[in-house]
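Morning. Coffee machine broken again, so started the prediction first thing and wrote up yesterday's gels while waiting. Chain of 102 residues, entered below exactly as on the submission form.
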Amino acid sequence: MTTVPDPDRPDPTEPDLPVEQRLERLLLEAEESLRALHEELAAQRTHLRQHQEIERLPEHLARTSSKWAGIRVFLDELVADFRRLRGAEPGEDAAGRRDEDA
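Came back before lunch.
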């Protein structure tokens, strides 16, 4: 990380400034650099976590697929129960339409 000298700010190492002012400016620049480094570190950690989750994508998809398969079985059973209660023949919906016609 390279900082570009600000022409409006005198060089903190200028010998004609009192030592306290030079130290204060150096401290401010160090704090600024530290803040920027913290931001960069946070961004890199976020990027790393995103890549780790991308690597786990097949696992997430497999888990989701199995859950949806379970939901599909449940819905099929639910529809069969409703049809049985309404007296519809298998392969017909509650209105008496055949599944392939719907």
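The chain has two helices and no strands. Going to sketch it on the whiteboard this afternoon.
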